[in-house]
Amino acid sequence: MKFLLNIVLLCCSISVFANDLSPKAAVISPRADKTLLTDIVKTNAGLVVVGKHGVILTSADGETWLQAAVPVQTLLTSVFFIDAEHGWATGHDATILATQDGGLTWQIQHNQPELDKPLLDILFKDKSNGIAIGAYGLFYRTRDGGMHWQSEFQTSLLFDEDKDFLAELKETNPEGYLNEIQAILPHLNQVTATKDQLIMVGEQGLLATSLDFGITWERLDEIYPGSFFDVKELINGDWLAAGLRGNVFLSTDQGENWQSLDNSSHATINKIIVTNTGALLLANNGVMVHYVENQLKVKQFHDAKALVSGAILGNKLVLASEVGIKLEELK
Q: Coiled-coil regions in this chain (predicted)?
């Protein structure tokens, strides 16, 4: 995700020079599966992957890919499906796309180029209720499947001193207050659902939980000042959080206490894939880390290209990387 976030923020800085902000449809390319791909999800019908230039691909087996009709060319950052047909994707320009046919075609639900901020993750609890998060505290909610998305400012993620500062600023300088809330929150990088709550991670060591699907958040005590790019609940109920410079933390008590795990690799970790025995952590520089029994074992791919996301399909690990799809046989 660090690799991805750098690309996303670079795109943000470039886009301010564009005159035409209207979205343009993605170009169909025979090499779409060889471009930067940023997220991949397994559905009942197979796999859906998103990436650069508005690329969305579907596959039943992880080997043959079909490019979808997509109405934007922006960098897409995440994808989520609630069932085999209904899915959503996020991207640059605060873009939210939706599909009702398993990912073959997509429609724009939200797109705000003038905002010049990327959305980085999306999550639904059913076909109606979903949230999307992104850079500088960007947060949207829908209660009707994405027909309408409302922006929310997550005050509960602020430190107490920031709450006091904003309260005073709102009284004395309303215009300054509106400007300040656009950037005072950290980047919100990833949100995941456990059995009974949400966990969200982000910039500046952000770890937060919610019992009401993101209406309010409890910010956990800081365990690391750097960025987290993913967090997952493992099959045994433990939580695993990972991010910048290969930092990995384990909690066996739902975030009350955390243990730093010894990782011989300092490659930034972008994604955690839960397995039956633990987890696979996908990182920059072609690094994949296998977590099992509180130990981290590092594997290095020869091409040293960033592994951004992945999904398990049968006995194959299908990887989304900076050079497209990669397949790895699971042993």
A: none
